[in-house]
Amino acid sequence: MSDAGVSAAEAVESHVRAFFEGHSVEVVDYDLGPERRGVVPDLRVLVVGPGPRGDSWAYVTAGCWAATEKNGHGLEFAMTAHVRDQRFIELMALIAYHHCGGHQLDLEHSMPIGEPWVPRSTCDHLLISLPYLHGPDLEHCPVPGGHARILWALPVTTAEIEFRRRHGHEALEQLFDEAEIIPTDPLRASVA
């Protein structure tokens, strides 16, 4: 990783630690393996335990910004889950690889996972959204020479993705609000 990349990843880590003050934060260096390592050279996944900001776990990438930034601006991704599990660290690595490997994600994009989010879940896609559970204070992260935007990877169902394609992102988010989904519930019912 370049010096700028190291500085950016450290800035993201500092930002996440400050936002989640009072929570445990573990840094997991994730090696994508020899075939993929060059796409996100020194990917880290920050694993945030439950605490004052909520009783769920948060997983945040650090390393995407450095691999894809344009004019000082780039993205990182967060996911919330009901437990600490290696599965979610691997999903964050999948998102990072997908985003940095030529399929750049952005707000209102989605990506198939290829299998259930967790066993028995009907959620098999990720919807890139604003980090509603944490708000703009987590979303906007200054890094040296620019700004990282931390977006939320929300597990959703194939039916919800199809609904969004037909009716738009806002309509799907309205359904989520009306159903009062618990986004960390892996067995939640599809709203579409």
Which percent bin holds the helix content?
25-40%
Q: Look at the structure and give the mean pLDDT.
A: 92
| Tally of distinct domains | 1
Task: Label the overall shape.
Answer: globular
**Helical stretch tally:** 6
What is the CA-based Rg, rounded? 16 Å
Along the chain, the helix and strand elements come as: HEEEHEHEEHEEHH
Number of strands: 8
Q: What fraction strand?
A: 25-35%
Distance between the termini: 42 Å
**Structural classification:** alpha+beta
Major beta sheet, specifics? 8 strands, mixed
pLDDT below 50 for ≥5 consecutive residues: which ranges?
A: none
Task: Describe this entry's structure for a reader.
With 192 residues, the protein is of the alpha+beta class. The protein has one domain. It has 6 helices and 8 strands; from the N terminus they run H-E-E-E-H-E-H-E-E-H-E-E-H-H. Strands 1, 2, 3, 4, 5, 6, 7 and 8 form an 8-stranded mixed beta sheet that branches. A hairpin with an 8-residue loop joins strand 2 (44-48) and strand 3 (57-62). Helix 5 (158-167) crosses helix 6. The chain is globular and about 45 Å long. The N and C termini lie far apart (42 Å). The relative contact order is 0.16.
Ordered list of secondary-structure elements with their pairings:
Elements: H1 3-19, E1 25-29, E2 44-48, E3 57-62, H2 64-68, E4 73-81, H3 86-100, E5 110-112, E6 123-129, H4 136-139, E7 140-143, E8 146-157, H5 158-167, H6 169-179
Parallel strand pairs: 4-8
Antiparallel strand pairs: 1-2, 2-3, 3-4, 5-6, 6-8, 7-8
Helix pairs in contact: 5-6
